[in-house]
Design brief:
The chain is of the alpha/beta class. Helices cover 27% and strands 24% of the residues. The strands form 3 sheets. Strands 3, 5, 6, 7, 8, 15 and 16 form a 7-stranded mixed β-sheet that branches. A 6-stranded parallel β-sheet has the order 11-10-9-12-13-14, with helices on both faces. It has a 3-stranded antiparallel β-sheet with strand order 2-1-4, with no helix packed on it.
């Protein structure tokens, strides 16, 4: 089958090539899935360069997020949630390929009326936003919610969850286009943090001195966010795409009665597995209500990526920070649907 196989670490994205690799052979507890679309993530960039916190042994197939069709079910009869032909999406190492072997715990059914492209953007962003906004921040109707990195896939997801809970949303991003995207996904107010580096003052102006009750931070701006946090605010840190890990002055936490909590969605599988079905149930319910839509990147001046040969181009958009939402690559069916 065709795949993006990494035999040595790749610095230049143009060096990523589609190669022929052996078909994956599912273990007794694994489904075989024909991939129809795959999502590009920033950590894919780190991993192909040997800079990610988890590196599989070389050689390996890149990519970790996908959607597709079940080709075969596990030999072990304990795993029978899905049947051959079911449309699914999920996450597992080796998604930049035509086929992948996956355990049942890493698969979910594609929502009704969703395309493969839309579903390939859901597995990592949707649950992260849901847990951050609803469980960690306990967002309530009438809260002011400040969403950083709002034009990214997880940021746009967070906007939708905050609005669904009745919050008033302030989104931070850059460029007029990205600010417009945030508004399109439901943000009530938008701030270009490059044009307004003292954006916390704008937040205080917008909230008429109240400050924000909830902060969603995948960037690394907790210290500055505390300057515009309301009394008893809940701040959720989920990443550091800004490049630096902050040192927090804890006296500010005390003076405003602030709560700062972390969120690592992947850790739930190890430490709180019983929460995972509940999180997906909440996300699917929001989709059913029409309050959540896919965050797939679309550009007026660019055709959708179709074919694994475009993986490097998709990752380049992330590297250059010129995309919004989740960049997805469609994978045409190989026409050979069985081993």
């Amino acid at each position: 089958m065709q795949a993006i196989q990494v035999k040595e670490f790749v610095e230049r994205l143009r060096d990523l090539k589609v190669t022929q690799v052996a078909l994956p052979l599912p273990q007794d507890d694994q489904y075989l899935v024909e991939i129809r679309a795959c999502g590009a993530n920033f950590f894919d960039l780190l991993q192909i360069r040997g800079k990610y916190q988890w590196q599989p042994p070389l050689p390996w197939v890149a990519g970790s997020e996908f959607s597709g069709v079940i080709l075969s079910t596990p030999k072990d009869n304990r795993w029978r949630r899905f049947a051959e032909g079911d449309r699914v999406f999920g996450s597992s190492q080796g998604a930049f390929a035509e086929k992948i072997c996956v355990t049942e715990a890493h698969l979910q059914p594609i929502p009704k009326r969703w395309s493969f492209t839309e579903a390939a953007a859901l597995y990592l962003t949707g649950p992260t936003a849901h847990v951050a906004i609803d469980i960690r921040a306990k967002t309530q109707p009438g809260d002011w919610a400040l969403i950083h990195g709002a034009a990214g896939g997880v940021g746009l997801s967070a906007i939708q969850f905050a609005k669904a809970r009745g919050a008033k949303v302030i989104a931070t991003a850059t460029t007029e286009r990205n600010l417009a995207v945030c508004k399109n996904f439901g943000a009530d107010y938008v701030i270009d943090y490059m044009l307004k580096p003292d954006w916390e003052k704008e937040v205080m102006r917008i909230t008429v001195g109240h400050g924000v009750d909830v902060v969603f931070d995948p960037v690394g701006t907790i210290s500055q966010s505390m300057k515009c946090a309301a009394f008893d605010a809940r701040l959720v840190t989920i990443g550091f795409v800004g490049g630096q890990i902050e040192a927090i002055k804890v006296n500010r936490i005390l003076l405003k009665n602030i709560s700062i909590v972390g969120l690592h969605w992947g850790a739930y599988a190890r430490f709180a597995p019983d929460m995972i079905p509940k999180v997906w149930e909440g996300l699917f319910e929001l989709i059913k209500q029409g309050k959540y839509r896919s965050t797939v990147f679309q550009a007026d001046d660019m055709k959708p990526f179709a074919g694994l040969e475009h993986v490097g181009n998709a990752l380049k958009l992330l590297e250059d920070k010129v995309s919004w939402g989740k960049v997805v690559i469609d994978v045409p069916s190989s026409g050979n649907s069985r081993l």
